[in-house]
Amino acid sequence: MCRVMVRHLPRIRDGSVDSRDLRQTLEEYSAGCEPADLRQMDVLHNVYEAIQGVPAFQEVESQFCPRYEALLRRHLSLLSGGRTRPYRVSDGGPATIAPAALPMRLLVLGDNFLSASRTWQTLSDHRSAVRPSLLFCNNEGSPWAFRLRMLNSLARLVLQGRPGLAFSMMRARPHISLRPLSHAVNTAWLRQRAFDVGLHNMGVIYRRDTIGAFRLGILNAHIGHLPGLRGRSVLEWSLVFGVEPCVSTFFIDEGIDTGALIVDRYTPPADTVNAAPSLVEAKRRLFHLDGECYGRAIARLVNGGTAIVNEPLGYRFYAMSRLLTASISQP
Is this prediction's pTM over 0.85? Predict the structure, then answer.
């Protein structure tokens, strides 16, 4: 039901939903909502925040608001008393990784030099075991805008005092495509080169053909505990449920954080999150661990060892509402 409700959000926001459909959807969802269920209630909060000012909502506001406000009061009472429903995070089952044939052929997938820089720098620690390459694609905007972004990102690396890293990336002779990653020309190039593993640093959703072009797959560093916490706002949900923040590095598929194998799960020092002045900064710090986490995953692939099966799958979480986010103690 959460997923059905979330699918209505774009239509609610753009005003294309009529009052009858909206009333029916709100009545059905709120009738099944349990105030102790944080995930259900957060979807309801998100919808309530989205429909303020929507013409269709004004026609049903008098019927819905009293019900929502009663649910809200009960929910906040349970939340403040620590009596919301606990969420059990599955650890997943064990799996074994056989040592890879060396050197491993790796491809860093980036939007620009800056986005790929942390991952590229990490690979310098594994030069004897890997053969890294770079791919940059124009996933948005005109070819000229893409060229300017590429030059700008290279200049920023130099201005940040990392000219050696910029030179190292240029010396690798990156493949730069003016087309999106999903374009058939890029898919053909990937298949021809036959890389073992891709490392995600692009702001795209990967298609099956792209993922299938890699012998082992594409690794992604997810700032949440898999398989239990999939989707959006996973740091916030970790804090709500008392789950220790971590980064799960896993082989992706076309689903939302549902790839079959978690190669590494890294729990950073507590101060990474606890000493951050805000949730935004805490998330930035975790995201910036991607290079380090890819390095850990590559070492495990090279040497072999124990991994984690990404199942049973937990809930898919959505962007947390402003109301529930405000209730989280600042890290």
Answer: yes
Tell whether 129 and 44 lie within a shared domain.
Answer: no
Count of C-beta atoms within a 10 Å radius of residue 54: 19
Question: Three-state SS string across 86-141, please?
Answer: CCCCCCCCEEEECCCCCCEEEEEEECCHHHHHHHHHHHHHHCCCEEEEEEEECCCC
Same domain, 292 and 191: yes
**What is the extent of the structural domain holding 53?**
2-85
What tens-digit pLDDT sequence spans the chain (331 residues)? 556 666 666 666 666 666 677 777 777 777 778 888 888 888 888 877 777 766 666 666 676 778 778 888 888 888 777 778 788 888 889 999 999 889 999 999 999 999 999 999 999 888 889 999 999 999 998 999 999 999 999 999 999 999 999 999 999 999 999 999 999 999 999 999 999 999 999 999 999 999 999 999 999 999 999 999 999 999 999 988 889 999 999 999 998 999 989 999 999 999 999 999 999 999 999 999 999 999 999 999 999 989 999 988 888 888 888 888 887 754 4
